[in-house]
Write a structure and sequence with these properties.
With about 190 residues, the protein is of the alpha+beta class. It has a single domain, classed as HIT-like (HIT family, subunit A). The protein is about 30% helix and about 15% strand. The protein has six helices and five strands; from the N terminus they run αααβββαββαα. A hairpin with a 3-residue loop joins strand 1 and strand 2. It is globular. About 20% of the residues are buried.
Length: about 190
């Protein structure tokens, strides 16, 4: 059945009544990503720099499934990004609430580095990415969404994973639920590391 035609001009040649267009097809396919609204509206972002408001201090106090924690080390842990750029987007965080890389202890630096390497190995085993983006955004002006608690991004990348959606529609299609991604990575982590 062909899509309905949009309503024509209002009686008397005036403008179209916007109320008459609700639900009328306009030829666009829409990919709804309501989970992104939570991020844009500031959900789970600390209102201040305190540990009580920090999602990276809260995550390891929860069960692994509830906190989206994939692996725990002695000085750091790996957690799924709640608002992933790509499937499997992990964050490696020290347990200690510290903002700057230069303030980490040598043991914390080693813990973050070790978990980052393990994350890459596990992601390769589970989803065969073609490459990775690794990085830390230090401070709000550098793009840190949670500047008060340092975190290393481990983003798996595939050829063609950046298409027109993020550029034109500010939308990213993520084909796997976070809980399923966490389970797959955690199971592979136990066997690989």
């Amino acid at each position: 059945m062909p899509p309905e035609e949009p309503a024509g001009p209002a009686p008397g040649g005036g403008a179209v009544d916007p109320g008459s267009l609700a639900g009328v097809s306009d030829g666009f396919e829409r990919l709804w990503t309501p989970h992104r609204w939570a991020y844009l509206a500031g959900e789970n972002k600390p209102g201040d720099d305190s540990e009580q408001q920090c999602p990276f201090c809260r995550a390891p106090t929860l069960s692994d499934a509830d906190g989206l924690v994939v692996a725990r080390g002695e000085h750091a842990f790996a957690v799924l990004n709640l608002y992933p750029y790509n499937p499997g987007h992990l964050l490696v965080c020290p347990y200690r609430h510290v903002a700057d890389y230069t303030d980490l202890t040598d043991d914390e630096v080693a813990g973050v580095a070790s978990l980052t390497r393990s994350a890459m190995r596990v992601l390769r085993e589970v989803s065969s990415p073609h490459g990775f983006n690794l990085g830390m955004n230090q401070g709000p002006v550098a793009g840190a969404g949670v500047a008060a608690h340092l975190h290393q991004h481990v983003v798996p990348r595939w050829g063609g994973d950046s298409n027109f959606l993020p550029i034109v529609a500010q939308t990213k299609a993520v084909p796997v639920l976070l809980a399923d991604t966490r389970r797959m990575l955690a199971e592979a982590w136990e066997g690989a590391c």
